[in-house]
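Changelog excerpt

This revision adds worked examples to the README so contributors can see how folded entries look when concatenated. The first example is reproduced verbatim below.
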Amino acid sequence: MRYIEAFYNRWRPHTHNDGLPPATAMANFTTQNQQQRAAA
């Protein structure tokens, strides 16, 4: 069970994130958020 939550769910594509894995979606969000703060 720990493997599923720690590894598989982080990299499994999710429809809520436009087919991106949660780790990738979070990295994209963080990058966009940092760029917006730098531009402000």
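The second example, added in the same revision:
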Amino acid sequence: MAQVQPTQDRFISLDSWRGIAAALVAVSHFHANNSIAGTHLLENLRLFVDFFFILSGFVIAKTYRDRLSQGLSIKHFMALRVGRLWPLHVTILLALFGIELARWIAGVDSSRVFVEQNSIENFVASFFLVQSLGYYPQAANGPAWSISTELWTYLIFALVTTLLFRWYRLSLSILAASAFCFLISAEHLPEWTHVWTFMGRCVFGFFVGALLFELYSAKPFQDAAAAIPKAGYSGLELLSILGVVLLLFLARLSDGGPMLDHINTLAVPVFSIVVLVFAFERGVVSKLLRNPFPVLLGTLSYSIYLTHELVQTWGMTSPGYLVQKVTGLTFLDVQTRPDGAIIKTWGVSQLQGDISTIVMLVIVIGFSYLSYRTIEQPGRQYVRNVLSGKQNWNAPIATLSKYMAGGAEAIRARLIL
């Protein structure tokens, strides 16, 4: 199949989709008595994680397929990917560890400190992003399970592209098909395999995304797409969105655990159509997605996804519970489970729940902007500078030491005076 290299360096509309998807995942994790609480729609918003996997495979294939096949080392590629994922991840993880440590020192609910997903073992596994490899995938910061699976899927992609490029498409197809077969048969496999369904879900979506790029970049497909008028693309975009809406409303996720049922399986082709249609960016919806706010959401998507549970739990719910106890105001529905766990849900009315959800999104986006500017973007640029030889790896340490020495000297001079 002849191929052409698409001209655009960035798929802005798809970036905006990623930002919207991250915000919807944040809504799905927020405990609030809002208008969609208890509905299949709220539960199914978590399916947008599969959209992340498909889009990631599509974009990584576009950016690195040829570079890896033409000599970019696996080590260099993986260093770039770690530099993209790890700085913000480890910052959030250390913040959560600090909170657990403070609770342990203060004796606050001490029987629930450093246990289950927040055990020391799970913090260590999450620190090295291996929690999806047979450990506790949702360890510590729950959303980080997906970046753990992505990191190791990147390695599989790099190995295939570097060592098996002659059979590249066949290899991608075998990987996607194998993951699909594993996922649909997981219910009948030994229980110890169930934890690997998180990894299987990523491998399936990612390599479907990589195969989508093969289709997208094929010359016959590009020629056929060029013949479609803009009005046709607008219609295709609206139809693909309708497909997503139907996906979210018509079924529900499996009851508990990572098992995949028909709705999860259906999510991959539905989101694949979205990626393929919006990659051309020729319809009216794509034009809307190129406006500043959707583009901002796309830029902040990783920060939104990785920080939202920290903000929801420790930036909103815990302080809100304290304020409610001190002031007597009622805006949290508090219930105690038989095992002693306290469940806090925002809004004693649907209106309060809806307002709380909007406030949560505003706070999460604001916090994500700060984390993007101060951690995510500088961390990524630091790794790129080190790999390109523009900066020594220990430059931040040297800079910190310089400021500390300068501060100590200033204090000493003031004491002498």
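Reviewer comment on example two: Confidence is low (pLDDT under 50) at residues 253-260. The first helix runs from residue 12 to 28.
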